[in-house]
Amino acid sequence: MAYIMVDIESDGPIPGDYSMISLGAVLVNEQLDKTFFGKLKPISDKYLPEVLAMSGHTREETLTFDDPKKVMTEFKIWVGETCTDHPIFISDNNGFDWMFVCRYFHHFIGTNPFGFSSQNLGSLYKGLVKDTFKTFKHLRKTKHTHHPVDDAKGNAEALLTLKQDFDLNIKF
Fold it and tell me: pLDDT (tens digit, 9 = 90+) per residue, 118-127?
């Protein structure tokens, strides 16, 4: 099984009404050398300027981004080429990231290479330290910039640290 750390940026809180505007992923391995990045044209006229601003993009910029079907097709191909077996979707906030990625895969491609489930890095950390109020974010090495590849890489670094510090039986 291959862990793929995923992060997305959007222009609103839910898929369909709002749009995923960028998608980043990294294969979790010691090198963190296999990454994916895509910028997606909005699928809705609705957007929240304050949410979009977190990504560092303007609405005008996002309107020039790639067709979402093209990006999701490229992402599916990348996942297939990167993973020799079943890919596992993991993210910092899988409730948010997963709903956009899953919807876009099914809407534009008709299938999701990750299947029907995802994992949450924050919940894993809370369980390991036995404290539901703790956060793993201090374990990131790469700065959290709201560029999805940077954010996915930082989260993958945290997962690698957890594997080492807690002697987890996770195969990368």
Answer: 999 999 999 9
Q: In which residue are the tokens 């709903």 written?
A: 99
Give dist(CA 14, CA 96) in Å, integer: 8
Which residue, among 23, 26, 31, 24, has the nearest Cα to 3 in the 3D structure? 26
Question: What tokens appear for 63 in the block?
Answer: 């309107």
Rounded CA-CA distance 140/93 in Å is 15
In the chain the first and final C-alpha atoms are separated, in Å, by 8
pTM of the model: 0.97
Task: Match 């709201």 to its residue by tokens.
Answer: 146
Is the confidence at residue 170, as pLDDT, over 90? no
Averaged pLDDT, 94-107: 98
Residue 131 CB burial class (10 angstroms; 0-12, 13-18, ≥19): exposed
Q: Alpha-carbon distance 131 to 127, whole Å?
A: 7
